[in-house]
Amino acid sequence: MSRLYKAHINEETGEVQTVKEHSENTARLCAQFAVPPLKELMYVMGLLHDIGKYQPSFQKRIDKANIRVEHSICGALEAKKRYPDPLGLLMEYCIAGHHSGIPDGGAYNDTADQSTLCGRLKRETEDYSVYKEELSLSHPDGQAFLQYLLNDCGQDQSLLIDKFAFLTRYCFSCLTDADSLDTAAFCGGGAAGKLNADFHHCLEKVNARLDSFVCSTGLQKARALLQKQVFEKTEQDAEIYLMNMPTGSGKTLCSVKFALERAVRREKKRIIYVIPYNSIIDQTADVLESLFGSDAQILRHQSTFSYDRDDDKEDYRQAAKCASENWDAPLIITTAVQFFQSIYANKRGKLRRLHHMADSILVFDEAHLMPVEYLQPCLRAIAYITKYLNSEAVFLTATMPDFAGLMRRYALPDSSVTELITDTSLFSEFKKCSFVRLGEMPEEALLQKAAQYPSSLLIVNRKAKARKLYQMCGGRNYHLSTYMTSLDRKRVLKEIKEELQRLEQEFPDGTEVPEERRITILSTSLIEAGVDLDVHAVFRELTGLDSILQAGGRCNREGKRKDADVYIFEFADDLKRASGGERGNIVKGMLARYEDISCPESIAEYYDRLFRMKSEEIQKNTITQECTNIKSIPFQTYAEQFELIDAKTVSLVVPQDEKSRELVKKLQYTGTVPERELQLYACSVYQWELDDLVRQHAAEDWGSGIYCLTSPDYYNRKTGISFEATDYLIE
Length: 731
What we know:
Elements: E1 6-9, E2 16-18, H1 19-33, H2 39-48, H3 56-62, H4 72-82, H5 87-96, H6 117-120, H7 131-134, H8 142-150, H9 157-187, H10 199-212, H11 218-231, E3 240-244, H12 251-265, E4 270-275, H13 278-292, E5 299-301, H14 314-326, E6 331-335, H15 336-344, H16 348-351, E7 360-365, H17 375-388, E8 392-397, H18 403-410, E9 417-419, E10 434-441, H19 443-450, E11 455-459, H20 463-472, E12 476-480, H21 486-506, E13 519-523, E14 537-541, H22 545-552, E15 565-571, H23 581-593, H24 600-613, H25 615-619, H26 635-641, E16 649-653, H27 658-670, H28 675-678, E17 682-686, H29 687-695, E18 699-700, E19 708-709, E20 715-716, E21 720-721
Parallel strand pairs: 3-8, 3-9, 4-6, 4-7, 5-6, 7-8, 10-15, 11-13, 11-14, 12-13, 14-15
Antiparallel strand pairs: 1-2, 16-17, 18-19, 20-21
C-alpha cells in the first residue's frame, strides 16, 4: 500500500489533502490564470512548487511534530536541474519565494545562511524524489520562452532584465494566487461569493445619462463635441489611449463610457480605475455607484477604506474583503500607490493581484501625477501589461504630457498609443478664469487682497504657512492641511461647501457682500484635486504648472461669473526658500512667454522642459540600476525601496471620539488593531516632528509601530497637530 503524503489537513473535519492533489489543483489554476505563451510553464511550476512536502521531516511536522522544515527550496532545486535558463531561473525565483517572497538573486559565492536565491539553493534538503512517482512533469519549450523574452528588447540589456523581472513577478502572481485559492478551498476559507458587474447594462445607463444632457449653451455644445471625438474612436484598437480633456468637459463620464465600450467590444474581464488620491476615489466611487446601482458591485481598494463598516451588507462585505486580496472583481477603484506596489512588490500578499490586471481596461485618472522619480517603472509596467497581458490603458488628464514620446523613450519603443482628442480648438470654451502673476507679496497684503472678494481660496506650499495665514486672517475663514485628521478635513470641507452655498443664495450677484460674510480658505495643495469648490478668486503660491491649473479649477468652476482671476504669487519674506522649486522656475518662464499659460502649447512646453530637466531622475529608480544579469535581480531589495509617496512623512493617530479612543486603548494593551479603521483619525507629520512629539511624551506606539497622540493638548480641530502643548490661563 502506497504512503499518503499530506499537504494540508482541514482542522475542522480532519480531512487530508495530499501533496499530489494540491499540486495538480494548483497547476491547473496556474495554467488557467496565465496568458497563452506561459500556460505550460505555469502548469509545471504549479506541480513543482510544493514537492518539498515529500520530505520526511515535513510529513512529521504536518502530523504535529514541533520542527521547522523549509520546503520551498526543493522545487527550485528541481527546476534548476531539469530546465535551462532563463526558463528554469524564472521557476527558481518563483518557487523558492512562494511563501517568503521573491528573493534577491544574489551572487555565486553567497553562502547557505544568506536569504538570496543563490544562497538558499546551497541549503541541504532531505530526499523528496518520491514526487517523481506521483507527478508527471512535461518539458516546456525553453527556446520558445527565450524568444518570447527577447521580443521587443532589441539590443537593450537593461530592457531584457526588466522584462524578465516583470514576467517573474507575473508568474509568481499566478502561482501564489492559485496556491492560496486551492488551500483556502480545501481548508474551508474559500466560501465567499464574488462581486459582479454587467458591463452591457452599465453601458446602457451611461448612454442614458449622456442622452439626457441638454446642449443649448456654447459650453454644453463644446463638451458634447469633445466627447464625440472620444466615442468615435471606440472601435480603434490600441494598447494605450490618451484622453486629454479640460476641466469641466465631463472627463469622468466620458472615460467610463469609453472603458465600458472597449470592455464590451473586446470582452475584457474587468475595468480598473487608478486614481492618485484617496479624496478623488471617494468622489469617483460616488459617481459610479449612483450611476450603476445594482448593475455593478464596486471593489474599492485604498488605505482609508474598510469593508468592516456597519452599512455594508454581509455577503457583499465578505466578497469584497476576499476580492481585495487578489482583485478578482469586474470593477475596481484603487490608488496609484496600491496599483504600482501590486506590480513591484515581492511578497505574495500584494503580488497576488498582478495577474488579474490581465484582460482589463486600466483607466489612469490624473495621469500626469505619476511621480517623476518613478516615471520609468510606472510607464514600463503599463507597457508590459498592455503588450503582454492583453489589457488596454487610458490616460486621463486635463494637463497631458507627451506620453506617446515618454512611452517610446522610457518604456517600450513600439507601444501602440492613440490620441483620443485630436482637435483641441474647443479647449478655449472651457476657460473660466485668467491666470495673473502677482509676483512677490507680503503676507498681510496678500490677505488684504483676498479679503476683497466674496470668497477666496489661498493655496500655499507649506503646512506651517497655511496655519500661520489662517491665524492672521479675520472673518469667516477655514483651514485645511494634512496636519488635520481626515475626519476633520471632511468636516471642514462640508462646512465650506455649505457656507459657499449660503453665500450664493444670499448674494447671487456677488456684490455688496458684508465683510463679516466674506469667506477665506487657507489650504495646502490637498484641495486641488477631487474637491468640488467654486470660489470667486484663487491665490496660488508659485509651483508647477499642473498644480496651478488644478487650483484654477476651483475658481469660477461653474462658469457663472464673466470675469475671474487666479493669482500666482511668491511670499516676499520667503524668497530664500526658492518658492516653487525647479517647477516654479519653469512656470516663471511660461508666464513671461504666454498670455494664457493654460493653453495646450504652454502645457506641452512645460512638460517638455520638465522632463528634459528631470531625465536622470526619471531613470534612477529602475530595478536594473544595480543589476546587470537576470541571475542577480534584487527583487526583495527593490520592493522594500519602492515608495511612490513621500517617505519623509508618517501617520499619527489622533483619538477624537469614543470609537477611536477604544481602538487606541486596544492597540495599547494588545499591540494590534485594524489599521484601516484608524485612517480616519490619522494626520500626517514629518518624521522629525513625530520624534519631537515622542520626546515630549505626547506620542506613543507601545511597540506596535502605529503612533498615537497621547496628549489632547497637542491637537486643535481647526488647525490640526501642534508641536507645543496648549497653554491654559488659570484664574
